[in-house]
Amino acid sequence: MTTNYVLIDFENVQPRNLDILRKHPFRVLVFVGSHQGKVPFELAEAMQQLGAEAQYVKIGGSGKNALDFHLAFYIGELSARDPGAWFHIISKDTGFDPLVKHLRDRKIRVMREKDLAEIPALRIPKAASGDEKLDAIVRNLIGRGQSRPRKVKTLANTINSLFAEKLGENELAALIKSMQDQKLIQVKNGNVSYSLERKNQ
To answer: What is the pTM of this model?
Structure first.
């Protein structure tokens, strides 16, 4: 079975939806900067539940791009050991993109995603039920913390990125309306605010 390695740039992305990896064969490495002394309880709990498949990598020193170099080294080391693996860099830092292109040119299977839910194996099937779709969307939005989309158009694009197959405008509008009907979001003058905790009440 192909191993999927998830390498999280914790200086850049602090995911709160790590639990979505639990039922999949992923190895998770969270790269923590030298000045990051604490991790949120939710992340620590999710890492603990992943057991031996999860580890922290504390960066030994500081400096510009120190974490990026560590992450690149680990991909090189792991790809030499496991050449058929997939690597998923979770970061919003576009500075990784030249590395991704170079590795792919070398036939190393690697992608950069901004969020865990964008990993292809975790994308929502178009045939999922309405509740399954909403649950997955809400989990993703909760995981984004303060970086949730603030405009309806951006929200629609974010939702679309979570699906294995792109949705049509009508399907996206229906999902957003369903979120409004359930009072998970409020839309005013094209701006979006959130009450996502209602989904679990």
So the answer is: 0.71
